[in-house]
Amino acid sequence: MTQQKANPGQRRKARRLAIQALYQWQVAETPVTQIEAEFLTDNDMTKVDKEYFCELLRGVPKFKSEFDDLIGKYTDRTNSQMTPIELAILRIGTYELIHRIDVPYKVVINEGVELSKIFGANEAHRFVNGVLDQLAQELRMPEVKHNKQEP
To answer: Which of 42, 46, 26 lies closest to 88 in space, CA to CA?
Structure first.
């Protein structure tokens, strides 16, 4: 997994497509490999961080149980009480907080909030923001602490 200097716009598009792909995976229970092939074929990927899209699409299902346990600590909702979009956004955010230390936690939270404003229900962004913020405090405590100390 090479971690080169990422283009924020291409990453943002990768996350958008990953949300849609993970939604399909959750709702239709289509195999990830099939969804990946469909998305890579059916979408213009020239302005998308394709590697990042594939990493998110493969990584989230791989660690789903671990992520759901972590998310469950910071919400009083069960998975079935969350919308599939909220769940996909929280799972991607959790993936990034754990497996992509090169992405600052504030970026993870902001991207999750923005995705929930685009795809989620009316107040979904508040819910996503609260859960990701608490996850960041647990999973990235040194980074969060350091940011709070800066003037």
So the answer is: 26
Contact 127, 99 (CB under 8 A): no
The token pair that represents 78 in the structure block:
């069960």
Contact in structure between 78 and 86 (CB atoms under 8 Å): no
Alpha carbon of residue 103 to chain centroid? 12
Rounded to the nearest 5 percent, the helix, strand and coil shares of the chain are 75, 0, 25
| The domain defined by 8-149 carries CATH number 3.10.310.10 | no
Q: What are the residue boundaries of the structural domains of the chain, listed by start?
A: 8-149
pLDDT digits (tens, 9 = 90+) for 72-130: 999 989 888 999 999 999 999 999 999 999 999 999 999 999 999 999 888 899 999 99
What is the DSSP-derived secondary structure letter of residue 48? Answer: S
Name the pTM for this structure.
0.91
Burial per residue of 98-123, b for 16 or more beta-carbon CB atoms within 10 angstroms, e otherwise: bbbeebebebbbebbbbbbeebbeee
